[in-house]
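## retry 2 of 3
previous attempt timed out at serialization; input unchanged, resubmitting
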Amino acid sequence: MTTTPTAGAQGRSDRPHDVVGIGIGPFNLSLAALSDGLPRTGPGSLTTAFYEQRPAFHWHPGLLLDGATLQVPFLADLVTLADPASPWTFLNYLKSRDRLFPFYFAEKFHVQRAEYDAYCRWVSSHLPGLHFSHQVDAVRWHPERALFEVDFTQLDAGGGAESLGRTYARNLAVGIGTEPHVPEPLKPLVGSAAVPVIHSADYLRHRERLLGAEHITVIGSGQSGAEIFLDLLRARPAGTERMHWLARTEAFAPMEYSKLGLEHFTPDYTRYFHGLPEPVRDELVPHQWQLHKGIDTDTIAAIHDELYRRTLHGGWPDTVLTPAVQVRAADATGTTHIELHLEHLQQGTSSRLHTNAVVLATGYRQRPLDRVLTGLDAHMRRDSSQRPCVDDEFRLVLDPLVTGAVYVQNAERHTHGVGAPDLGLAAWRSATILNSLTGAQPYPLPRRTAFTSFGLERQEAPRIPGQAPPLVPLKDRC
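## retry succeeded, writing output
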C-alpha cells in the first residue's frame, strides 16, 4: 500500500476544490447533479469532488422488493423541484432509456424503489467528479491556507486499502447518511450463524434462509416492517404461516398522507421548525412519528386482504400481530431457537416468545458526524444535548476562525425537523446550499410553498430609547 499522501490515481494535488462532498447517497448526489448545472468558469462556478467508500451507488439494496414503491412522487427526484430543466431529471432518465411512453401510459405517480435506485445509478455513472471506492479518513482545518485538509484511502476491488490520498477544499458537504439501528437486547444475536437475526437492510440477502425457518418474528411497525411481513406472509403456506409481527407503537398505523399534513415536508415548515427554541423542537419530533414512520394505506390494505383471503375456507391464519410491545431481553436457546422477553407497554404485562428467526425493521439512525469530523470537534458549536448546531442554510456553526463552511445533509433533524431525511426536500436543500456557496441565486427558490401558516407573525416589543435589546440565551440561538 502506498504510504505517501497522494490524490489517488491522479497523484498528489494541492489545488483546492470549492466543495468536497463526503458520502454519495441521494442527497450529495443531488448536490453534485445541481452543481453540474453551474457555469464551468467565472462568477458562480464551483469546482467539486465527491468521495464515497462504496464501489458504486446503491440505495437500500436489501429493501428493493418487487413492487415496493417510493413514498414520495417521482417529482421528488434529485433535481426537479429546484431545476426541472436539468438533464438529470427522472423524466430525462426515462427518455434516455426510451421508456417515456410506457411510463406515460402506466400513469404512476409513485415509482418503484428499484427504479429510483436505477435512476440514481444512471446519474452517478454520468456525472464527473464522483470518486467511489474512496474512504474519507480525516478532516482538518488548515488555518495558514484557510482550507480543509481531507485525507482518504483509495480502496481496491475487495475493499482493502490500495493507496492514501489528500485533497483540499474551501468548503465541505457531509452526506454520510444513516446506519441500521439494532435494539440493545438483540445486538449480541445479530449475525448469528445458527439462528438468523438480521436487520431489514439486509432482508433480500437472507430471504431464502428466513423462509426456511419454522417460525418468524418481524419487529417494527414502519413501512419496511409492513412490506417484509407481507412478503413473507405471501410466501408461507396457508394455515402454517407461523409468524409474529411486533411493534412498540400503539397501533399498526397509517402514515399521515393528507395534503395539508404533507405540508410538514415543505421549506415553509422547515424554516418554521428551525426558528423554534431547542426544547420545543425536541418535544415536537417524537410526536410526529406518523408523518414519517407509519405505513402507507395500500400496504396496510394488502396485508389485511392477504390475511382475509386465508380465512375463506374457515379458520384463521397462524399469525399474531401485536402493537404496543417492546423486547426487554433476548436469549439464544439451543442452536435453532431464540427466546424474546416481551413487555406490553399499556397492560404492563410480560410474556416470552420462542422463535426461529427475527427480522429487525427497527429503522435507522444518523451516522455521527464525529466519525469523519473529529479534527473539527474543537471548532464546532453544540446545543444543550451536545448535538451540532446547524444554521438555516444547513451549515455547521463553527468557530469564526474557520472561514470555510461545512454543510450537512440529513444530519439536521434536531434543527430542521422531520423533513431532513425526506427525498422531497433533497433538491431544495441542495439548491439552498449552492446558493449559499456561490453568494448568488443560480437556483431561485420559491418564497412560499405551503398553504399552512405554521406560526404567528412576530411582533417586536416596543424598544425603550437607550436600552439594549434583550439577549437571547445561547442555547436558544443554536
